[in-house]
Design brief:
Blueprint (H helix, E strand, L loop, with lengths): L4 H4 L17 H25 L8 H10 L8 H12 L3 H20 L7 H18 L1
């Protein structure tokens, strides 16, 4: 047999990837995940406020809150009020990160001109940042 190894093995044709509609599955999953996380954080805040004996610190919820407390759709008015009480009770690096974020927003708002954010979103962020700054100061 003089057949070489390369000739003996047949190659399979490559499978073509399906081109999916960009609005189809991925955004639904992202929205579901963010809604699920938002609900978990709201439960976390409610438990912190109402039942501190059984409440347990969750670092991921804490990080999510620090990242998203300025966004009204992520943290509604009712939960923001609870968050202000939660921030007052914060300790350590969480408190420090939150304070740095708020100070940066307040100072950058004075020097900022127009950006991609609407004026309403900027005013909400600024109001929330100032409220958190007052609590932490």
């Amino acid at each position: 047999m003089s057949t070489s190894w390369k000739n003996a093995k047949k190659r399979r044709p490559k499978k073509k990837k399906k081109k999916s509609n960009p609005n189809e599955e991925y955004p639904k999953k992202v929205v579901e995940v963010s809604e699920n996380k938002k609900e978990k954080v709201q439960e976390y805040l409610n438990e912190w406020q109402s039942n501190r004996v059984s409440w347990k610190y969750k670092k991921l919820c804490d990080i999510w809150l620090i990242k998203n407390f300025l966004k009204k759709p992520m943290l509604g008015k009712q939960y923001f009020k609870i968050f202000l009480l939660y921030v007052a009770d914060m300790k350590g690096m969480s408190k420090q990160r939150c304070l740095e974020k708020v100070q940066a927003i307040v100072s950058s708002n004075e020097t900022r001109t127009e950006t991609e954010e609407s004026a309403k979103e900027r005013s909400i962020k600024l109001k929330r940042a100032k409220a958190v700054l007052n609590v932490l100061s």
